[in-house]
Amino acid sequence: MLSGEVGARWLTTRCSDVWLLFVILVLSVVTHFMHLLDSPPGISGDAARLGLYAVDFLRHGLWPFYVHHQFGPYPLIIYLQAPAFAVFGFNLYVLRGVTALAGALGAPAAYLATSEITAGQGSRFARRAGVIAALGLALSPFFTQLCRYGIEGALLPVIELLCVASLWRGVRLGRPMYFLGAGLLLGLSQYVYIGAHAFPVALAVACLVALVADRRFVRAWRGLALTVIAATVVALPQLSLFVRMPYTFLARTQQTAGRLVFDLPDPIITLLSKLMNQLLMLGWRWDNAYNPYSSRPLLNPVLLVGFAVAVAGTVRSSTSGRRHVLALALVMLVPDLITYEGLAPSATRVFGAVPFIFVLAGMGLAAVWRRLDEQPGFPAAAGCLVLAVVLLAGVESQWDLAYRVMPRAQAGSGLEWRASLVEIAEAGYVRQHLDDPILLPTSEYQRAPLAFLLAEDFPNRVGGVPVPLDSGQRVMVIRPVQPERPTTEGLPSGYLADTWVLLDKGVIWFLPPIPDSVSPVGAPEFLLAKNGALAAEVYPARWKGSQPQAEDLSVAFQNGLKLVGYHATPFAPGGVVTVTLYWRAERQITADAEMFVQVLDRHSNFIAGVHDWPLRGAYRVRAWGPGETIPLSYNLAIPSDAPPGPYRIVAGAFDLLRRTRIALSGGGDYATVGTVKIPLPPSDSVPAHRLHADFGEVIELSGYTLGSSVEGAVHVELFWRAKAMPGTDYTVFVHVVDENGNIVAQSDSAPLNGQYPTSIWSPGESIVEERTIAAPGGEYRVFVGLYRLDTLERVRVVLDGEPLQDARVPLGTVHLH
Fold first, then answer.
1. Contact at 8 Å (CB) between 788 and 728?
2. How far is CA 213 from the centre of its chain?
3. Taking the complete model, does pTM exceed 0.70, yes or no?
4. Distance CA 537, CA 479 (A)
5. 37, part of any domain
6. With contact defined as beta carbons under 8 Å apart, do 724 and 739 qualify?
7. Same structural domain, 633 and 697
8. For residue range 478-510, what is the model confidence (pLDDT) as tens digits?
9. In which band, very low, low, confident or very high, does the pLDDT at 731 lie, cut at 50, 70 and 90?
10. Residue 260: DSSP 8-state
11. Residues 446 and 397 in one domain
12. Does 71 reside within a domain?
């Protein structure tokens, strides 16, 4: 009879837990999927890049995934998104839906973790604490909104909570399967997000803290060892990367911020300031880029009271569960604390600590609930007011988000270009005109959000060389109303006029820059953003561009890439030069690469350059088809103080993971693709004497001025003119000769002391240079000529139609005192 009562009680308890989990899950799903497309507005660039990785995985079989600028494999979100995309298509619903669902699962996971950690305080207390923690996560606007961004960090809370729940259940029941599950989840967390690197450390510290108050952790050493072994096996590829390339452990932090707090002049003050802001984040206000709607805190006032009670109770008592969770929260806040991107907390870096903060709040309010139950004279149901207040506070925060903050934010400025990316690609013009050739600025396509949203209707990407358009062909053109906006300035190539991607019959063609390529033939149609602002215009046009004349190249790299051509616009100090590199994959590329292009002066000093992924990762090198030519264009800002003279354009490829340049097949790690120049400004000087001395039919000495300086030196001003492109660097010599024909002084150097060599002179260009040659007093004749430095052979000279035997032009006589 007794065993039957125990069995019935156990079955009732299990059923009530299942129903609680179900109700919590439904509520959490509702709050996470409400406003799925509206809050936040637009589409996150980070999320879109992850979506593009899923595109490449499904259509090109490209893996493992080395996430853009994160230097390590974080593939879990790709493996989760890929099947969803395969079934439902590449759209914003799926991109956000996967992480929203993961966030929604965080609430029942919080219930499981909290109830397991507090099981020693009685089943009633455990359920109450678990329900409150779960409701806190389910109704938190910050948590639900961050999970709707579609970024990989949204997977971390549910994995953390399930890992902790499984570990504590293993400690409580002593069953190896739970320790094994905790280890698998712990190892899996290392493939979620770089912020999860701190989780194994936090869990180890939390277990040591709990060990002091709970000797069960000592008796469970075999199970804990099994957890460590399982986690190590699962995370082995990631760990091997850390061993081979230790910088990858903190690569994301260093890449984003550039430095840690300890690199700053006053690290202690900065640490204290950041710690104070983390405390203010919990209960006062929190402004950051991932919470654009509200400056409200992470915890509403009710949950803040529970958090404070739990922290105070942890200090006063030896409850192992509270100490364990507090240690987890504190250690998971450390990455944000020691990283400097400003003093405000980073939403993505503190996200790993958020679930444990809510678990602590649940524990504290459960303690308040129990204290109310124990007070004499209080009704038996008085403690239920705690749960009611928690629900009301959570509902109020959701109401505030939906009816006060969202309308105000969506009516603000700046939304027009973010929202237009979705409208143009999905609900707007492109989807309604899939049969029309459409031209879209490359600067728009290389924004990951638009590239991802177009992937559903345009599954193929190819290089547009030669250009797949006929002269006079009708096209539709989409232009953003504000092409030069802040986000465009952040792109390596910026906004390039007349640089297009062509959308046609399911294919995206990447075209080289083609000036004056379209001629409008009709009135524009305007596309409006959700706030009513003008976002873009669409107009019909005729294609009149032709393939630009690029300089041929043949530069092969050891990874299978090849540079086959380049084109550059004119250089000018303080201006912008557009460099287009024509790349070709000679075979299927097996590892991603970045490209770089730089401008170097004649001493190989860096002048300007760009280093980035092709099209900002919208078309990775590994996805290029063998044999196709991809034009990549870049804007390079030339310093205003850049002097006249020759400059080299050099280019190469970079292995981001290994942090090394990819070698050329013939040696070296970059190639000179072209030589350009900043021309000399026009000179106002006029020669005292004019003549016609032709040097090898390519250079003419058209005049000169000869005199002496007060310092006792010969001063000569030479007026050169290029009759054709010399193509060779000649040395100019000036001889000062005495009455016996002896050279008493001379000056031998390239024109303008090498600053402006003859090889860069253009046909018809005039070059004026001055020379001063010290010599003793006396009367001298002065001669000038050219020779090749490598052979010392003088260039033959024809003066006024007569060849000169010694290949030097007499300039006259000068007397020095």
1. yes
2. 46
3. yes
4. 6
5. no
6. no
7. no
8. 887 766 655 555 555 666 777 899 999 999 999
9. very high
10. B
11. no
12. no
